[in-house]
Amino acid sequence: AGIEHLSGLANRTAGLEFASTGTFSCSRPIIRGLSQLTRVGDEQNGELVRNELLRAGVDVSHVIADPGHLTALVFLSIRDEHNFPLLFYRNDCADMALTVDDIDETLIASSRALLISGTHLSRDSTRAACRKAIAIAVRARTRVVLDIDFRPVLWGLRPLADGATRYVESF
What we know:
Blueprint: H1 3-11, E1 24-28, E2 33-41, H2 44-55, E3 58-66, E4 73-76, E5 86-89, H3 105-109, E6 113-117, H4 124-140, E7 143-147
Parallel strand pairs: 2-3, 6-7
Antiparallel strand pairs: 1-2, 1-6, 4-5
């Protein structure tokens, strides 16, 4: 996830300050900043993500360094001006290892908005974590925003090398 994406997303959200590079993000009105709730690998790439988030002013106190999983990667290929396929390295990655036990009720309840990435609805454990986070947000009257972010390859609907496809017919 690029930091440029974070600032671009914040500019498009009608005054709410939040962003997502992983599973969840929350904006906390007290500090008027961003908080990230996710997992990264306890390795160099995870450290890079954490440091870039910090540099962008994001609270990373809820970013869990997971020694059992690597930080997800995605490669963007540019073939021409209309063709730029993505190659995802997300099987068994750290942010997809987020569990219901990782969800911080205080963080979510004290936030103005909760952003859920649709990618994390594709697996049972992260879907359960999303549902818990949404339930907390609804009880606390925290706005819930769903970034559908539908990528068929991450749902097992396309071959791993077909990260560029954003549509599949229903069956």
